[in-house]
Structure formats: structure tokens, C-alpha cells
Specification:
- It is a single chain.
- By secondary structure, the protein is α+β, with helices and mostly antiparallel strands.
- The protein folds into two domains: about 110 residues, Roll (Ubiquitin-like (UB roll)); about 290 residues, 2-Layer Sandwich (Creatine Kinase, Chain A, domain 2).
- It is about 35% helix and about 20% strand.
- Strands 6, 7, 8, 9, 10, 11, 12 and 13 form an eight-stranded mixed sheet that branches.
- A hairpin with a 5-residue loop joins strand 1 and strand 2.
- The termini are far apart.
- It comes from Pseudomonas borbori.
- Its cofactor is Mg(2+).
């Protein structure tokens, strides 16, 4: 540990870093932690945070007391957060030379905290490692640029581009539409290069000022860290250019939602061989079992893919998002697409996750579903040819309430994720939904106020 901290200390001193943002991810994906002078950070060799931040909702509230005290120490004790020297990133928008360091969380006996999203992903990756397997993932992040708006009752609007005009209509894959925001994305790419993020392509998606950034394939934990950093970076770059960037799953009425597509495959740790292909290039049994596991368990763990009430607006009819866990080759109308590729690159693309999902938890869940299929030798359904939106055999839960009930009852996943995590996550999401239900919407005011 001391050698690793010495390396981190040298890295910070070489770059004359004066401040360190020490952060962890909560269940929602919000970065929580402390900002510390570099000298203090190095002296303390980490930080302490209350365990309770891992049961905090997106609104800043907490779960009900009976669950809170069943899962946490009644004394509201601290957890110990240790820096990961492989998760250190510069903060190029900061005025002072600043670095952000992602931490792992432990109790005072040194045991990993069970509610930590990063620990959950590490646990799933260990399941694979114990079998001699290594997952490879390549996430794709969709998001919208919008006008800045201080009133949440006002609908979001497309921002002005270089032409001085807001985008209208759908401009999928348009180069000119993407170039409307060249100055912003030049900063994004410059900052991401400084941070060492493995960005690949920029695409204009279907919605007005809706974009997609693709990451190069790699190791799941490192990419989850990168997504966490990228989302902060994207928001900061947008603010610099007087617009906003949102990763809400469905921010604009009657426009496509924003997904986090996850390409995933599994290789042999020793040989690097893609286990999804046989020697003759055909689909392997492990590949088919992986898909079978995703088909069976994604509907049971859907709140990890669609964590908010807004997430489920992506799954409404005619929204261009898949609404089931059917699979098919080169088929974007199903939840599990198998892109055409050489045998060494065979993979499945999970198209169900929203851009609002916690990157650690959604990668853990997607890989765990596949793992359970592989070890349980689950057979997938027949692949879909043609349009798959209307297929109803493998449809998803249609509300967050129904999805949470199914997740709570999934004992097979609880065996791997742990009872404490399952209870805590469901409780946080239920608390958020209770807050949501207390808010009177503009639809209710518009159609019910003077009519009923």
C-alpha cells in the first residue's frame, strides 16, 4: 500500500497539484466526498465519510428509519476511503492545479463496504476471474445539449449552435449538426485527452442536439471510472459554453431517450481468446448461455438499468428504444443486439440501460446477468428477425414500482449482490419515488385544474 501511495504522491507532485477531489460514487452515481489540499491528502492517506452517504437519495433525503438502522450502525459511524492509484484524473477546468481521485470504501476492520457501487462491480469481476474469464466492455453514452433553464417547470429546449439557430427536427448522424457545437466538443476532447479517457467517436443522435460518445473497449472497472469522470467533464464543458448537458433518460417530450449501450464479451484470462466464438468461428455455447442469462435476469434487475421514474419513459411505445430482452443479429429493435463482427470480436450489445444509470452498477448488473446464464447453462430464446418492438414474450416491467418488486424478489441475484445491497438499493429508489409522487406535474395542472 505504501509503495502505491508513494507512486501517487510522486504523480501529484510532478504535476504540481495543489488540491485533490477525493470522491466515491453513491447508489445514484453522484460523486460524493471531500476536497483536500494535496499535503493533507497525502498525510491522511485517504478520507473518512459517514456510511449514510450510501443510503442518500438523489434529492438528498434518506431511506426510512427502520431500513436505515437495519443496514447501518446506529451511531452513524464513518467508513474508510482509500485512494485507488489507478483512478486518478486531472481536472482541466479547475482554476488551481487539481486532481480527482476515486476511492474504495472499507469498514474499520478492512472489509469492503457492501453498499458501495464500485465494490459491487469489483465483486462481479472477481466471479469472472475465479472462472479464468475476463469481461471486455465498450460503453456508448447518449446525452442532450439544451438551453440553460433555471425553472424546472419549463420544458427543455435545444440550444443555439454556431449558426445562431436552434436545431429542429431529427438529424441522426448529421456531421453538420454535430459541427454546430464544435467549440464545445473541442474542449471536451482536449480535456478528455488530458485525463486519459479512452474516447472513440462522436455521433449526432436522433433528437435535437442529442449526441453520443463511444468509448474504446476495455476493462470494466476502468471504464466505469471513466464514465463517472466523463459525465462531470461533459457537464463542465457545457457550462463553459453557456449550455447544459443532461444524461436524463428521457429529458424532452416526444423525442428519443438517451441510452447507455453496453457492448460486452468475455475472454480467457490466460490466452486472451474470445470465449463467445468456437474455433470454427461459430457462436459458442458460452455465448448463447450469456445471452440466456441476460434474457432471464435483466427484467429481474431492471432498476439497475433504469433507476429512476423518468427512465421508464424510454420504454413507452414508439419511442425508438427496445422494450424487451429479445435478441437478434444486426437488429436494433431488440434489447440484445449481436453486431456483425469477426469471430474474435463477437459480442452482445445491451441496448436497455439508460444514460442515467450508475456506471458501476449497470456494468455489474449486465455482466452478472450474463455470468448467471453461463454458470447456469441457460438457453436463450430464438433470435428475432425483423422488427422486434411488438414482441411481448420477454417484455420489461413498465413502472419503477413493478420493477422494484421484481428486484426485491430475485433471490438468485441476491446470492451474488448481497442482501444488504439489495435492500439498500431498493429502499433508496422507493424513497425517491415517494418524493416524486408528492410533486404535482404540469400535466395535472393543464388537464385537471379546470376540467374535473
Amino acid at each position: 500500500m505504501s509503495t502505491k501511495l508513494d507512486q501517487l504522491s510522486s504523480w501529484l507532485k510532478e504535476r504540481k497539484i495543489t488540491e485533490v477531489e477525493c470522491l466515491i460514487s453513491d447508489l445514484t452515481g453522484i460523486a460524493r466526498g471531500k476536497i483536500s489540499p494535496t499535503n493533507k491528502f497525502l498525510d491522511e492517506k485517504g478520507m473518512r465519510l459517514p456510511e449514510s452517504v450510501l443510503l442518500q437519495t438523489v434529492t438528498g433525503d434518506y431511506v426510512e428509519d427502520d431500513i436505515y438502522y437495519a443496514l447501518l450502525d446506529e451511531a452513524d459511524i464513518d467508513m474508510f476511503c482509500r485512494p485507488d492509484e489507478n483512478a486518478v484524473f486531472l481536472v482541466p477546468w479547475a482554476i488551481e492545479p487539481t486532481a480527482m481521485v476515486i476511492h474504495d470504501t472499507f469498514d474499520k476492520q478492512g472489509n469492503p463496504i457492501e453498499l458501495s457501487p464500485r465494490n459491487i462491480l469489483k465483486n462481479v469481476l472477481k466471479l469472472y476471474a475465479d472462472k479464468g474469464w475476463k469481461p471486455i466492455v465498450a460503453p456508448e453514452m447518449e446525452f442532450y445539449l439544451t438551453k440553460r433553464c433555471s425553472d424546472p417547470d419549463f420544458p427543455l429546449e435545444a440550444p443555439m449552435g454556431r449558426s445562431g439557430r436552434p436545431e429542429v427536427g431529427r438529424q441522426s448522424f448529421s456531421i453538420d449538426a454535430a459541427n454546430e457545437f464544435d467549440p464545445l466538443f473541442e474542449d471536451v476532447y482536449d480535456w478528455c485527452e488530458i485525463q486519459g479517457l479512452d474516447l472513440d467517436t462522436l455521433i449526432h443522435e436522433d433528437g435535437p442536439a442529442q449526441m453520443e460518445i463511444n468509448f474504446r473497449h476495455g476493462e470494466a472497472l476502468h471504464l466505469a471510472d471513466q464514465i463517472t469522470v466523463f459525465k462531470r467533464t461533459m457537464r463542465e464543458a457545457a457550462l463553459k459554453h453557456d449550455v447544459a448537458a443532461t444524461f436524463m433518460a428521457k429529458p424532452i417530450t416526444d423525442q428519443p431517450g438517451s441510452a447507455m449501450h453496453i457492448h460486452q464479451s468475455v475472454v480467457d484470462i490466460k490466452t486472451g481468446q474470445n470465449l463467445f466464438s468456437n474455433a470454427d468461428g461459430s457462436m459458442s455455447e458460452l455465448f448463447l448461455h450469456h445471452i440466456g442469462g441476460m434474457q432471464k435476469y435483466i427484467p429481474e434487475l431492471l432498476p439497475l438499468f433504469a433507476p429512476n421514474v423518468n427512465s421508464f419513459r424510454r420504454f413507452l411505445p414508439d419511442t425508438s428504444a427496445p422494450v424487451n430482452v429479445e435478441w437478434g443479429e444486426e437488429n436494433r429493435t431488440v434489447g440484445l443486439r449481436v453486431p456483425e463482427a469477426l469471430p474474435d470480436n463477437r459480442r452482445v450489445e445491451n441496448r436497455l440501460a439508460g444514460a442515467d444509470a450508475n456506471p458501476y452498477l449497470v456494468l455489474a448488473a449486465s455482466l452478472l446477468c450474463g455470468y448467471m446464464g453461463m454458470v447456469g447453462q441457460l438457453e436463450p430464446g430464438a433470435p428475432v428477425k425483423g422488427r422486434g418492438y411488438e414482441r411481448r414474450n420477454l417484455r420489461l416491467p413498465i413502472t419503477i414500482e413493478h420493477a422494484l418488486e421484481r428486484m426485491e424478489a430475485c433471490k438468485a441475484a441476491e446470492e451474488y449482490l448481497g442482501e444488504k445491497f439489495m435492500r439498500g438499493y431498493v429502499a433508496v429508489k422507493r424513497a425517491e419515488h415517494e418524493n416524486y409522487k408528492r410533486v404535482i406535474s404540469s400535466w395535472e395542472r393543464e388537464f385537471l385544474l379546470l376540467s374535473v
